[in-house]
Structure formats: structure tokens, C-alpha cells
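Figure caption, in words: inputs first, then the predicted bound structure.
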Amino acid sequence: QTGYVAFDSGYANTGSCISNITYLDGERGVLSYRGYDIAELAENCTFVEVAYLLDHGSLPTRDELNEFSQMLNDFAMIHEDMIRFFDSYPPKSPPMAILSSMVNSLCSFYPEMTENPLENIDRMSARLVSKVRTIAAFSYKKSLGHPVVYPRHDLSYCANFLNMMFDSPVRPYEINHKVVAALNKLLILHGDHEQNCSTSTVRMVGSARVNLYASVSAGISALWGPLHGGANQAVMEMLESIHESGGDYRQYVERAKDPKDPFRLAGFGHRVYKTYDPRCRIIKQACDEVLEDLKFSDPLLDLAKELEEVALKDDYFVERNLYPNVDFYSGIIYRAIGIPTSMFTVMFALGRLPGWIAHWKEMWDDPAWRISRPRQVYVGPLSRPFVPIDQR
Ligand code: SDX
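Bound structure (s-citryldethia Coenzyme A present):
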């Protein structure tokens, strides 16, 4: 009953937004970015190529990729005054709270990017894609009380992130190209997903002509929720809890089915997919490959597979078309790479960033753009006579 009413621009009166960025078929489990199937992109591209595709509408030529990569390299540092912000956060500050506020602060350090965005849009996008990676890694180092590791000009986007996360003066980080490849694949699979909660938030906020940084900051806050991007962290916490209590996942399945119990099976179900999430299929396969490559065995992977098998045969889940989604297995790979559970949703934001930027730009490029202003169905009382306080 509530939702979008007819808008001139961007919103059809079908209650949906008009876009040419991502195609999603929830019945057939199809997902493509700018017409390219997600499986092909995940198999053949780097995350930087796909970020370029989402933002520019076509895969880059080698020269375009080199130019974009050079911009990402040039923008990799953050202002030294911003690094001092980290010292003011309490040690256990939620990484998503830090990320959202640091991204919003970019408006203060780069006002020229926000005053005339259409002139600076490519630089602004590259600046954001590069700096969010640095902010994420710096926040992790600061949470450990360790010195930050600066980005390097000789490393690729993902290798630089891993090096900033795990290198240290006393233990140099050895770049493993299979880990880099796995991270590229994970970030690609999170790149965009049409009008999900956080992307709709970026569009909603941006529709008031709010600059890109502040719009993305709002999207980061929306992604934080355990029903959305926070689910990858919730999946790992659920699997760890099952493992620590002896591995009896059936009680969790039964709890998830109990209408009186607010517990939901984290990483299961989706508003749009009523079949297997195509991203989950790719990530599940990558789990086996990465753990094999790293000689890392994780009992939680076996547990997740057993849990999936039981749920997919259970009438409750079958009747409601509940399948594992993108968040169900992604944490297994992040954990094998060494990324802490508290950073899993930050990783989701890192991947989703090019999609948020693409949607914000699509709106700004729309000549018929109007502010998003959904209406409602009012069900409250209409006219009530005023009663002075002493007579209430
Ligand atoms: C993401 O939108 C996107 O595209 C999001 C995303 C992206 O890339 O941006 O794909 C990323 O957010 C994936 C989803 C991550 N969240 C979780 O895994 C949290 C657990 N999932 C659920 O909370 C739920 O499935 C949602 C939030 C994902 C979807 O919510 P819906 O579509 O509103 O589902 P619903 O509440 O209408 O469910 C329909 C029925 C209900 O039962 P009945 O009232 O019909 O008896 O299915 C049940 C729900 O109780 N149900 C679940 C369940 N998910 C739905 N029951 C148990 N466990 C679950 N996980």
C-alpha cells in the first residue's frame, strides 16, 4: 500500500525505479551488470574493471583501465588530519559507524568535489572507491592499536587493501595471488544489486541533490542492518554459536520456523530471489577453492553446507522459497583470508560502493530528475477536538 507513487523521472508508477545498471530476475536467479552475466564477470575480471563497468556503462579498454587504475592509485591516501579522527574513536567502535562518518567527512576535505559534481564526477568516483578501501584498512589497524600501513603505488587495488590490512613492520605480509583473486571475486559479486535497501537509500538521499559522499554515507548506514549487509556477520556468529554448542544446527532451523521466535536463519531468504541466489552459488564454489589453496580447513564451512542441505529439504523453507543468499558463505572466505568478523559488513560496503556511485550518477544524469517523495496510506484519526491539558 505504501511505496513510490508515479514520478516523472526515474520512478514508474509500478512502484519501481527505472535504471540501466543491473538486471535481476528473482524467479530464474539471473543477475547481470550492464548486460554482462555476473558469473562471467566474476570469472574473468578484476574488481577495478567491474567498478569501471558499473560507473561508465561499458568494460574499459586497456588504456581506460590504466587511466582509472592510475587515478585509484593517486587517490589512495587520505588527508593526514583524517587519520587523527581514528584516535578519537573508542577501541571497540563499530567499523560501519567509523566508515559512515569518515566517508561523510570527505565532503569537508574535498569540497571542490561536491560543489560542482557533474564536472568532477569521474575523479570523485575514483577518489571514493580508492579512499574507502584505505579508510577500511586504517580503521582495522587502529582497532588493533597498530600503526597504519600506507597504500603502495606498486600494488593492485585488492593487493593494496590486503597489504594495508595485514602488513606490519615486524611481520611483512606476503601477497598471495590466489587470495587476491578470491577478494576480487567477492567484491565483484557485491558490486550492485538494483534497488536494495542501501542503494535505494543512496538514491533517496541523493535525490535531494545531496553530494555523493553524504549519499554514500547514508547507504553505508542502511547496509549495516542485520537484515541487509550485516547478515554476513550474523551468519558467522550463528555458525560459530552452533559449532560451540556442539554443532546441533537442527535446533536453529526449528527456531527459525517458530513464528513466536524472532530468530531468522541468517543468510537465508531474499525479498527478490525466490530461487538460489546466483552469487551464493559462485561464492560457495569459491569457498572450496580458496580453502584448498590456503590449506585452511574450516569446520564452519562443513556446518554451513549441512545446514543448507537440511533447510532446502524442509517444507517451511521450500514453501516460502527460502534459499541461501549472498551472505551465507561469504564470511567463510573472509575468515580464511584473515579478515575479522567485525569487518565483514565493511567488506560488503567496499564491494557495493561502485553500484551506489553508479545509481547516484544515473540519477544526477537524469534531465527529468525529481526529489524522491513517496506517499503513504494514512490510517490514523482524522479530526480530533483539542482538549486542554487539565481536561485530558
Ligand atoms: C541482502 O535486497 C537485496 O538485494 C539485498 C542484498 C543485496 O545484494 O543488496 O541481496 C543483500 O541483504 C541479502 C539478505 C541478507 N539478510 C539475511 O540473510 C537476513 C535473514 N533473512 C530474512 O530476514 C529475510 O529473508 C529478508 C530480510 C532477507 C527478506 O525479507 P522479506 O522478503 O521481507 O521476507 P519475509 O519477511 O516476507 O519472509 C516471508 C516468509 C515469512 O514467513 P511467513 O510470515 O510467511 O510465515 O519467510 C520467512 C518469514 O518469516 N522468512 C524466514 C527467513 N526469511 C524469511 N524464516 C526464517 N529464516 C529466514 N532467514
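DSSP finds 18 helices and five strands in the chain.
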